[in-house]
Amino acid sequence: MAAVLDGLARVVAFLGGTGPVLLSIVLLVAAPFVDRLLVRRKRVVYRILYNSKIGIGPETLGDGADPVPPQLRQVARLLDRMSMVVVRIRNGGSYDIEPDDFEHPLTFVFGERLVWNARISEASTPELRKELRAGMRFFRTEDNGQPARDNLSTVRQWLKERVTGLVVPQPGQQQVAEPGWHGVRLDGLSLKRGQKAKLVVVLREPDLTEGEITKTVRITGKMRDTGLIKDEGRARAITLPRVSGMLAGLLTIVLVLGLVSRPADGTVACASGELRIEGSSAFMPAIEAVVAEYHAACGDDARITTEATGSVKGVRNLINADPAAASGLIVVSDGRGDDKGLLRSDKIAIVVYHVVVNGRVGLTSLRRADLQKIYDGTYTDWKQVPGAGTAALPIRIVGRGESSGTRLLFEHEVLGPGTGEGLLSSGSCLTKDRYPAAPVIRCEREDNAEIVRIISTVDGAIGYADELSLNEARGTGDVTALTLDGQAFAPSTAGKPGEGYPFWTAEYLYYKGAPAPGSLKASFLSFVRAHVRAQARISAAGFEPCAASPVTRRLCDLR
């Protein structure tokens, strides 16, 4: 039994955890209502309410000893071979149905039986009854697709002549020929939402031989687009409500049993308690994925919260935290933080960044010397930058705030000593609306995804972002990641003095003091450092774990 419960818990984890499974259950329960109320398809539904003989036969006239007129006995034999079909038709959808909604009109064919009479009964309104009577057309099987011209008046006139000839025959009068109508078509059918009516058809078998009354009824027609013509009296084994209900029930059982069991992963040293993780906005999505994996392995007794405060602010908060707060706090930092020797740290991954420009700039590579001139204000227009073209296009810098570890890395490793990001001159990223005297247009944003989005939409924009944020924006925005001095990141050359791509670092986890044995902080640090499930989540987020290979371990040691 334990193995079964463990398997169910793994199924819940495979499906994304409790939240996605619960959402799937809600969506499955809602699916039939959405299909019915929101998709709003046009539906004509019908149901055969009666299909049997009329019930009057020669046996009702006695045993033959009574003097029954021959005409009456002939009528009785005729009625014995007659049947009646009653079909209810209604608008079962959410829209009014108009004649133009039909590609082929609603048609009723009764096998070999011949139509003798028809009427419309119990229509929702007198107007609807009148419209349906006017739209009834009767056809023969030999019409071969030709438009049916015989209407209800034609049928009634023929019926009057035939009955008169049977009941009150005139000497020398020939029997009225039977037209041989095999079906009824409802041309110009229109039904407002919720309207319904009944079609009643009187039929006769094709000959007067003995035998059972046939009951064949074939109803056809086709609506345009997503419209449906549906037999509501026909029980279907597979329906949307049944399928969605069964799946919702199955997922509910799996979820409940999975939550009840929630066996811990034996390879994870799980712990309970509270832990807060803050810091780098670039790496926080990867940390959040690792937290979700820890919860999947250990359950909800571990309460871990995250917040992207920025690397610098996070390290500062940890340094200034009192012992009680610091015992439940870990900080994620892009590169080595200014910990003043008061904190402990672990390196967990390689983070690669890119200088990014708007696609209109037309560059794919930039010299670091030219990049420095852009940031110190020597260049204010892209026509001044070698290789960027001759058309006038203002340079617009989208930077990070002072609490960003990515900004410190960019200034230290890319711009070099003596060159910073410069003054904050713009709030809109379009003009120097905050400080007109500044040498260059420069705005700040705290979220990497927002920075890349602005660069992709603002002509002449330049900035920097991590690999993950850039990959998410490439599919929707016009952005270009530049090589620096003709080089892109390569593990074989990274970190060598005077060569290699400079814009990368190791991601640090900072914490104050040695974690208490058995604490949630100690458990989580051990999990994120080396557990294969944590490493897989970090890799999936676009970063290389330090423990992944000797090469990544060497690179992490360099930074």
Automatic annotation (TrEMBL):
TM segment ranges: 12-34
Keywords: Membrane, Signal, Transmembrane, Transmembrane helix
Keyword RNA-binding: no
Pfam families listed in its UniProt record: PBP_like_2 (PF12849)
Classification via InterPro entries: PBP_domain, Phosphate_ABC_transporter
Chain ranges of the PBP domain: 268-528
Protein name in UniProt: PBP domain-containing protein
Organism: Sphaerisporangium melleum
Lineage: Bacteria, Bacillati, Actinomycetota, Actinomycetes, Streptosporangiales
